[in-house]
Amino acid sequence: MLRRSFTATAIVAALAACATSATDANAVGSLADVQVIDRTSGATLPIHLHDGRRYVAGTPGNRYAISIRNRTGGRVLAVMSVDGVNAVTGETAAWNQSGYVFDSWQRWEIRGWRKSQERVAAFEFTALPGSYAARTGRPQNVGVIGVALFREARPAPPVELQRRESGAPGAAENGVAAAPATADSAERRGDQSKLGTGHGRSEDSRVSFTDFERARPTPDEVITIHYDSRDNLIALGVIPPPRAPAPNPFPGVGFVPDPPR
Questions:
Q1: Which segments of the chain have a pLDDT < 50?
Q2: Which of 57, 95, 216, 239 has the greatest number of beta carbons closer than 10 A?
């Protein structure tokens, strides 16, 4: 079935140089490279692996983006979920919803909640009560980013039929039978210090509509990245705590001063 989805056509030419780049550091995925970019600092957030999950550490108050680079020679659809909410439609996220369509080898940063074809509300790390999901009554899945990737269906090859002799029963006037018409193919913690994604300031982000027919109804790949503050990830054991410097037996030189009075 044809699904109406977004495509970032306005930035294809500007990003053409990215087409042949190698897999970026701290990117995950097979059909696409997915990264989380701290837009305030400009840093790509390192991926931490823990108990089979991927985590990034966000800084409260900082804006961020989800960077996606299509690694295939065909178009792919990326259905975006942030905190269990579809980043395009605002619905509780599901695989069969609208998303962004990426041309072959295209890279783009998704920087916020889609408000129109021209604007987004910036993604920003915030305390759980201030997250968009919590403010809309859906706090259960705060702290996770999901990207469901779909390949595009390929057109069916033309069917070759045996030419019938003129006048034979069932023959078409031009000697080729017409094909029958077919239908369209069809752990959240209770800690309020937990980090979520806020509905930030309005920013320019222009896209256009396109149609995309999925090769199959379920995703070809689902990429999941959990996030929280660095302090919370240290408390969870995801990030090792900073090591205290070892005592130095000779930290200075000189003679023994008098103690303070």
A1: 1-3, 9-23, 167-188, 190
A2: 57
d(CA 231, CA 193): 10
d(CA 17, CA 250): 54
SS3 string of the chain? Answer: CEEEEEECHHHCCCCHHHHHCCCCCCCECCCEEEEEEECCCCCECCCEEECCEEEEEECCCCEEEEEEEECCCCCEEEEEEECCEECCCCCECCCCCCCEEECCCCEEEECEEECCCCEEEEEEEEEHHHCHHHHCCCHHHCCEEEEEEEEECCCCCCCCCCCCCCCCCCCCCCCCCCCCCCCCCCCCCCCCCCEEEEEEEEEECCCEEEEEEECCCCCCEEEEEEEEEHHHHHHCCCCCCCCCCCCCCCCCCCCCCCCCC
User: Which residues make beta-bridge pairs with 56?
Assistant: 227
Q: Are 29 and 149 in contact (CB under 8 A)?
A: yes
What pLDDT, in 10s, does the model give residues 169-203? 333 333 333 333 333 333 445 455 899 999 999 99
- State the pTM of this model: 0.76
**Integer Cα distance of 227 and 213 in angstroms:** 32
Distance of CA 218 to the CA centre of its chain: 17
- Amino acid 118 reads E
* d(C-alpha 90, C-alpha 81), whole Å: 9
63 vs 65: CA distance, rounded Å: 7
